Each structure stands twice: as C-alpha cells, then as structure tokens.
C-alpha cells in the first residue's frame, strides 16, 4: 500500500512537471506568435527610434542623436514591462556573443532545454536526484553557453587588436582620418573585429559621436585592451597629440600583454587542471555510486544527517573552487 501511494505521488509530481513545462511552452509559443505578427513594425520602429530620426529636429547642438535617445530610454525604463526588459537584456547578450538568433527564439530553446530532459528522465526513471541535476543544468547551460561564446569572441578580438592598431597608425601617417582608418579595418580585416568596427562606423554615420560609438563597442566587447586604446583616442581628441605614435605604443603594449597572458596560462595550466579534476571527482564518484548501488547512497539522500553532509560537501566544494581560482588567477 505504501509503495502504491509513493508511485501515485511520483506520478502526480511527473504530471505536475509535464503540465508546468507545457504551460511554459505555450507561453513561449504565444510570445513568438505575437513577435512574428508585429515583427516588421517593431523592427522598423526600433531602428528609427535608435537612430533618432523622428526626434532629429528637437536635438540640441551639443548632443548627438543616440545620446538623446538613450536619455529618453532611461526615463522610460521604469515603464517597461519585465518581458521587454528580459528581451532587451537577452538581445544585448546575444549581440555581444555574436549569436545570430532573436531573443524569443533563444528563450524558446532555453525553456525546452530546462523542462524537456528533466521531464523525460523523471517520467521513465522517477529519480528525483537526476531530475534536479538536469533542471539545474538546463537552466544554467544556455547562459553559460552565451558567456563562453562572448569570452571566445573577446579572445579573438584581442588577438586582432594589435594588427588593427597598426593599420590605424599606417592610415593616419598616410593622411587619412581616424574614422577612415576605422572603415579600413572594417573592410580589410576579418570578424569579429571587422564586424565591431563596421557597427561603430554605422553608428557614427547615423549621427552618434565617435567617442560614444567607441564607448559602445567597449561595452559590447568588455576588453581591457580595447578600453586602453579607446581611452587614448578620446584623450587625444580632447587634448591633441600625435595619435599615430600613441596607437603604435599601445599596440606594442598590448602585444606584450598577450605574451604575458600566454606565459601565465602555460604556467598555471597544471594548477587549473588539478583544481578541475579534484572538484569534479567527488561529484562524479557520487553519481557513479548512485547508479551502481542506489541502496548504498540512500542514507546520504534520504536522511537528515545525509542532507547536512551533502550541504557541507557543497560548501566545501565551492570554497575549494574559489581558493584554487584565486591562486591561479594572476592579475597583470
């Protein structure tokens, strides 16, 4: 009788998870349908508002179009719904990661990855532990993927930055302006640096100032090397000086920083791998034991003392991970 009650309870939980997943999927499908119905109009209005063409007559002489528009967006930020804020945040993250998907499309995949694997595992195995693990992995995985793509793109960008600065130096010494040097980088170099410089040139052509366009590029890439170069350009535009010589010096500095990064990465690779293996070993061993002999792991998973020990293990795992990361993360 007790076993039958437990089976019915597990079935109720499974039905509840399945229903919740279907409700979430229906909500996302409805959101996509709404987005598709008004996609063209919203895209046109968004581009016009971003450029600021509708409010061009009302601009002051000391403000550019994008600056005025962003000030108005900040005032309206409190009036935006949570859905619009999430969509805007996800759009910026996907743009920085160079993932060519719409926010609603990626959100659909995110929700499916969150619910479907965990629901299937629970329906067939009724293992709550693996269900919770898959729920956590499905919820965190898409965000981790975005961040990994951003870091990968940032590394490629930083490896191209030295050559881009040298191209700018050559263009300036030949008599071209810095904006023309930016256009040369956008035409002659490969992605992602060509994409970012082309986007900055487009913003300048649409009315934004050069300083603002470069600052937006720094906000997208989040690279300290790019921030150094952009700061130097901004200071030179305000105070004057030999910009070609400044960019050449910054290019040499960034090249040396890249060499130091490579040396540090090689020296600390063993420590990072050791930390990864030591941190993953208890988790992997616990999963294997739970698969091979579930009765052996029941006291750990079903008793209050076992729950306390599991919580202590999690705390120690996090402390050990942070300690190893602090050791191998060298600032330079």
TrEMBL record:
Q: Which organism is it from?
A: Eubacterium uniforme
The principal location of this protein is membrane
* Keywords, comma-separated and alphabetical: Cell membrane, Membrane, Transmembrane, Transmembrane helix
Please provide, in alphabetical order, the Gene Ontology terms of the cellular component aspect for this entry: plasma membrane
The record's listing under InterPro entries reads: T2SS_GspF_dom, T2SS_GspF_sf
How this chain sits in the membrane, per its record, is: Multi-pass membrane protein
Question: In this protein, which residues make up the domain named Type II secretion system protein GspF?
Answer: 170-288
Reply yes or no: does the keyword Membrane apply.
yes
Q: What is the lineage of its organism?
A: Bacteria, Bacillati, Bacillota, Clostridia, Eubacteriales
Q: Where in the cell is it found?
A: Cell membrane
Q: Which residues cross the membrane?
A: 13-34, 106-124, 130-146, 275-292, 304-324
Question: What protein name is recorded for this chain?
Answer: Tight adherence protein B
On whether Cell membrane is a keyword of this UniProt record, the answer is yes
Q: Which domain of life is it from?
A: Bacteria
Q: Which Pfam families match?
A: T2SSF (PF00482)
